[in-house]
Amino acid sequence: MPAPKLKPLSEQVIVITGATSGIGLATARMAADRGAAVVIAARNEDALNALAAEIRAKGGRAEPVVTDVADMAQVEAISAAAITAFGGFDSWCNNAGVAIFGSLEDVPLEDQRRLFDVNYWGIVHGTLVAARHLKGKGGAIVNTGSVLSDRSMALQGPYSASKFAIKGVTEAFRTEFLAEGYPISVTLIKPGPIDTPYMEHARNLLGTTGTRNPPPSYHPRVVARAILYACEHQVRDLVVGAGGLAVSAIGRLAPKLTDLIMSKIAKPSQSSNEPGRAERRDNLYDAREDLAETSSLSGPPPRRTSFLLEAQMNPLGPAGIMVGAAALLAGAAFGMYTLRRSKPLPERFADRARRGIGSLGSEVRRGIGSLGHEARHGIGSLGHEASRIAGRAVGYAEKEARPYLRSARKEGGRFADRASRYAASTYDDARERGSDLYDEARSRGRSFYKSARGGSEDLYDDARDRGWSLFKRGRDTAEDARDTGWSLFGRARDRGEDAYEDARDTGWSLFGRARHEAERQRRYAAKRGEGLLDRIANALRG
What we know:
Keywords: Membrane, Oxidoreductase, Transmembrane, Transmembrane helix
Structural class: alpha/beta
Family: Belongs to the short-chain dehydrogenases/reductases (SDR) family.
Strand order of the largest sheet: 3-2-1-4-6-7-10
Number of helices: 13
Low-confidence stretches: 337-342, 374-383
Shape: elongated
Transmembrane segments: 316-339
Radius of gyration: 49 Å
Largest sheet: 7 strands, parallel
Distance between the termini: 169 Å
Order of helices and strands: EHEHEHEEHEHEHEEHEHHEHHHH
InterPro entries: KR_dom, NAD(P)-bd_dom_sf, Sc_DH/Rdtase_CS, SDR_fam
Domain Ketoreductase: 12-197
């Protein structure tokens, strides 16, 4: 089989199902930020379009496809859309999933079938469609499974069973692709508890107000890093979170003890009095509120790094070297411890039996030899026979002791392996706790900084608002004064014009009256003059 040639992320077209929430949303955003073109698929059309617009606004390339992965025809439409928009795809990430919290007796069979239609058949549909396109050109198929594929979680029975099925079918696909010579890398991502809207989206049949993840939980962007790493590198499995891995390991080493612990902590560790956002509740059959990477539930902040994941992605880096060094130190410490201790009880019994039987055989040989020496003339044959029987007895005793010796050695080896794994687990826990303390300190520092910055910004905003308020009040006062002045000027002008018009009208009236009176007096004077002239004329004639 030719080795798959996986392109750098910036040159890839990546298909991501379940892309509008949690791990899928974080993966889509991270892939777009790193230069990949993304074909995003989910049931929520509004959320898909909003996510595509968000990616394009940042200069990225995105093609939304409304899809229910339980339907093979709709999954085939994703491939067709990728070919139409970008000419094909290079990696296919099967991430869509739904969940149910509740005992198997309480979960209706139709709900369990619906969960398998999405979780299991969705991955089968996606892998079959992706393989048709990639088997000729090469690429990567990345399936999101769970650590619950190694150890089932009580009260998440159908979900755990679907993850067991996903692990099985992923291994089967990988083996068959290898046999056919397809240049396809098939990777199973196995996250532990992740802080996504998973708990709010799940159908809750626990009889409690809400659900939650058993701690410790990780940020979905940690899983997104693992998924995108698998798009660029051929890797079989990647486990995210040492806590989930520890549960898987304990389940293998002490299954009965794990059953007992699970039966006691399953409900209190997964139930909550906090319901979360009602708009997100129960997306088993229909899409609910999306576009959130993390849940709205309270609690410790999710871890943003996984030392275990870093060691898997870079074995020769600091994380891988530290894990390897820790394993070597643990093995050396256990070896020194076992060398300084007495041998295990079965081995001590075997040694004692061997020494006792050997001593008895020697004594028998010496006794029979002495007897043969003293009676060699009469009973030589009897001494020879007795010596032979004694040798057989010694051989038989040593043969019977060997299984106990082998068993003791095997028990010692198993105990050494357990101690080594326990030391590695303890180291992981210590490292994770240190990482948690660092993350918490960093978060608190950022919180204090944001609080201080927020307070300064609030003071600045208050001062600016007050300055603007005083400026506006002054400006309003000036405008009021200006308006009042203009009003008084207008009134004065109006009054002046009225007085002028009144004076003019009065003047014209007086002028008219004077002119009329003058005209009347002129006529009167003329008339009297004419009368005087007539009287003078008459007097002269007489």
